[in-house]
Design goal:
- This protein has about 300 residues and is an all-alpha fold.
- It contains 17 helices and no strands.
- Helix 4 runs parallel beside helix 6 and helix 5 packs parallel to helix 8.
- The protein is globular, with a radius of gyration of 22 Å.
């Protein structure tokens, strides 16, 4: 495992799943003797495997790699912990956001803290912990010495918060001179679930920058903006960027309705395999949301009858 010139099979990495405490200790001892390029390759491969399979668990390895001497390894370790909701992790991420010398690590930490903001809004974690996370993100956003990349990722994460100042933060980001920050603002608009942003989001669907159109399409889906339907359909039919087309398809699955279903069913016949797959997944989403709604209405009817 130590020498980057020695070929290592991806299949061998599955053995690192679900390590016991003693096995993790042995891994750590060996890891310290592995050269940097090999460590980077291994951690990226573990992240890729974890994203592709829910049956593996490399969290103990990702945790110990948060203290790796290499910034790439630390960043990838944060990415690998994207589903970890252990409350202790929130504190580690706050420390990395505030103190790590690497911009990429601080940005990854800011992104990862978003789920703890959401957990706080859902009252699934203690208010004090949620406040600590939000304070760290606000500190990054308002720090004049912090880099653009870190600040924009913090804006995206704080968008989950119900604090009144979040509207001001998103508006400030949307008016920023840097286009990257404005793109993050549109991402945050969708994540905020605030209908205030609907008109702005719809307008950005026609932005010349495909990255902005992509985020605007995502936000239209998250905000379930039915008024954006015709523009989203036009993106699917004519946008030169396939990723924008796929996100517009996803948005139709979230918005729903007869017209959205018709377009999605037509996309299932597309010559593009990527568009066909996106349409099939969007139809599944549409059916799931529709079935969930019917269940809720049925429950409401039963409750009314019994009442």
């Amino acid at each position: 495992m130590r020498d980057s010139h020695t070929r290592l099979s991806i299949s061998h990495l599955y053995a690192f799943s679900d390590l016991t405490r003693d096995e993790t200790r042995l891994f750590q001892e060996a890891w310290s003797r592995v050269d940097t390029e090999r460590r980077r390759w291994i951690i990226q491969s573990l992240v890729d495997i974890a994203e592709a399979s829910f049956e593996v668990n490399f969290d103990p390895i990702f945790r110990l790699c948060l203290d790796d001497e290499d910034e790439v390894v630390r960043s990838r370790a944060i990415e690998g912990l994207w589903e970890d909701e252990d409350l202790a992790l929130a504190g580690l991420l706050v420390r990395l956001l505030r103190d790590d010398p690497s911009e990429s690590v601080r940005a990854a930490a800011a992104t990862s803290l978003g789920r703890f903001v959401l957990l706080g809004e859902l009252e699934k974690i203690e208010a004090a912990l949620a406040m600590m996370v939000e304070d760290a993100l606000l500190g990054a956003i308002y720090d004049p010495h912090e880099t653009l990349e870190v600040r924009r990722r913090a804006v995206e994460s704080i968008a989950y918060s119900g604090q009144a100042q979040v509207r001001d933060i998103i508006e400030m980001a949307y008016c920023d001179d840097e286009e990257k920050m404005r793109i993050s603002a549109v991402f945050a608009m969708g994540r905020s679930a605030d209908p205030l942003w609907r008109e702005m989001v719809i307008a950005e669907l026609e932005n010349p920058n495909p990255e902005m159109r992509y985020e605007a399409a995502r936000a239209c889906g998250e905000l379930e903006i039915s008024a954006a339907l015709s523009t989203l359909i036009e993106l699917i039919e004519t946008d030169p960027d396939p990723e924008v087309q796929e996100m517009a398809i996803w948005a139709l699955g979230r918005i729903g309705g007869k017209e959205a279903r018709r377009v999605l069913e037509a996309c299932c016949e597309s010559e593009s395999e990527a568009l066909r797959q996106a349409a099939e997944e969007a139809l599944d989403e549409l059916d799931f949301l529709g079935g969930h709604l019917e269940f809720l209405l049925f429950e409401a009817d039963v409750w009314t009858d019994e009442g």
